[in-house]
Amino acid sequence: MPRLTPKETPDKRPAVSWSSGKEVLGTDRIFKGFFVDVGLEERLDAACDTAGWERGELSHLDGESRTHWLMPTPTPFFVLIQGIPFTTMPALVKTDVSYSGLKAYWPKEGRSVLAFQVLHPDLLAAGYQEPLPVSVKSTSTDDLLAALLKHNAVLDACEAAAAQKGSPRSFEFWEVAVPFGAGTKVARGKELQSPISPIVCVHPAQPDIAYLRKLLAPKVVADIVQQAWPQITSWAADRSQFRSENAEPAAVNGTGR
């Protein structure tokens, strides 16, 4: 058995984080959107480069600055969950909802956490098929939950329209991409309030068939979900990962499918 090589810290799994308005260092630009670290996995770096994503250096609450791949906004994610069991964070954290693929936790005297795994169409097109975790904390959990619920309502409308045309069918939550974007600035924080741009779902009020077809998942997504589902639900049940998944607060301070 080969001897292990000592490391300073465990290998960090690639994860998607949200910027509610960080300055891209060395520029006059403020970035609002999702990003992923550069240099954690060669295949992911190659796929991001093939997708043509921009690199940018962002500062973090720990005082460090790191280089990231900045995802174009709106950001379409195939959200790998079965659905949304409840419509509020307090309800989600009162029971184990890992069976849905959602990771929800609200430790005593701590900040709420909401997380799930995603696939991005650009990365799939570049041959990268590993689900990536998205994780947010604090008031951003309410924002993210509201975005998921808006998407759920769009799927309900799709099912109603299909039934009305005489071709009833159900849609998996991940079958249509959720387009995430940055909403209008709001003030967040208890003592020192800061203006931030919350995560929102940017589906139009009444999406038409042509619009929705552009967001339909390719067959490979169904294949990935089927193969990875046991791992996804196991990950959702594991609360120990909350500390290691690069989830940052946005401020300083129902029914499943």
What does this molecule look like?
It is a single chain. With 257 residues, the chain is an alpha+beta fold. The protein has a domain at 76-238. It is built from six helices and twelve strands. It has helices at residues 42-51, 89-93, 121-125, 140-164, 209-213, 219-237; strands at 16-23, 30-37, 54-59, 65-70, 75-79, 103-105, 113-119, 132-137, 178-182, 186-188, 194-196, 199-201. A hairpin with a 5-residue loop joins strand 10 (186-188) and strand 11. The longest helix has 25 residues, at 140-164. The chain is globular, with a radius of gyration of 18 Å. Residues 243-255 have low confidence and may be disordered.
Over all CA atoms, what is the radius of gyration?
18 Å
Proportion of residues in β-strands: 15-25%
Instruction: Give the oligomer, counting copies of the same chain as homo and different chains as hetero.
Output: single chain
Structural class given helices, strands, pairing?
alpha+beta
Quick rundown:
By secondary structure, the protein is an alpha+beta fold. It has helices spanning 42-51, 89-93, 121-125, 140-164, 209-213, 219-237, and strands spanning 16-23, 30-37, 54-59, 65-70, 75-79, 103-105, 113-119, 132-137, 178-182, 186-188, 194-196, 199-201.
Q: What structural keywords apply?
A:
6 helices; 4-stranded antiparallel beta sheet; alpha+beta; single chain; 6-stranded antiparallel beta sheet; 257 residues
